[in-house]
Amino acid sequence: MTLDLNVDSEPTRAQRWTELVFHVFLRLLAVAFLGFTLQTWMQVIGFWDGANNRFDTMSTTWKIYIALLAVLHPVASVGLWTTLSWGRVIWFIAIAVQFVAFLSFSTELGENWPVFYFHLGSLAIYVIFMLTQRVIDKKT
After folding, report:
1. 42-61: string of b/e by CB count within 10 Å (b at 16+)?
2. Contact (Cβ atoms closer than 8 angstroms) between residue 119 and residue 95
3. pLDDT value of residue 86
4. Quick one: CA dihedral 58, 61, 67, 71, positive or negative?
5. Which of 13, 28, 33, 128 has the highest count of CB atoms within 10 angstroms of its CB?
6. Residue 6 belongs to some domain of the structure
7. Is residue 30 domain-resident?
């Protein structure tokens, strides 16, 4: 959303409603990324059995991937919760890392279609919000 520095203009009802729903969307994404954070850290500490489910037994590719996610997920979660623009940047970076890993290293890292589709869906919703905001801003 854009910051309107013109103090004389009162935001329209549509602008206020869109901004409220957008902030709820960002907070829901933050909760989802908190869940991704917990899942990632449980994998790092070896909560589940398996070769790639404990950091010291992971391959180098897994270690790099999981270390990136262990940092990006909680930072994205905090940034999305605060609804600040840097949170969306970290969110995009986290999604990009997962897409690259999913598309380039799926034989080693495995395929996680639900997470892939979740990210695609959340990006689509984000784009719809941005397009809606532009339409509303042009009308005012």
Report:
1. ebbeeeeeeebbeeeebeee
2. yes
3. 96
4. negative
5. 33
6. no
7. yes
| Residue 135: both structure tokens together | 């339409």
Taking 70 as the pLDDT cut, the residues of the chain under it are 1-9, 50-52, 140
Measure the CA–CA gap between 90 and 92, rounded to whole angstroms. Answer: 5
Q: What is the pTM of this model?
A: 0.82
Helix (H) or strand (E) holding 117: helix 113-139
Six-digit token pair at 35? Answer: 């869940």
Distance CA 124, CA 92 (A): 12
Residue 126 maps to a domain: yes
pLDDT for the residue numbered 38: 95
Q: Which two tokens stand for residue 49?
A: 């059995």
Q: Are 94 and 73 in contact (CB under 8 A)?
A: yes
Residue 76's nearest CA partner among 98, 102, 100, 94 is 94
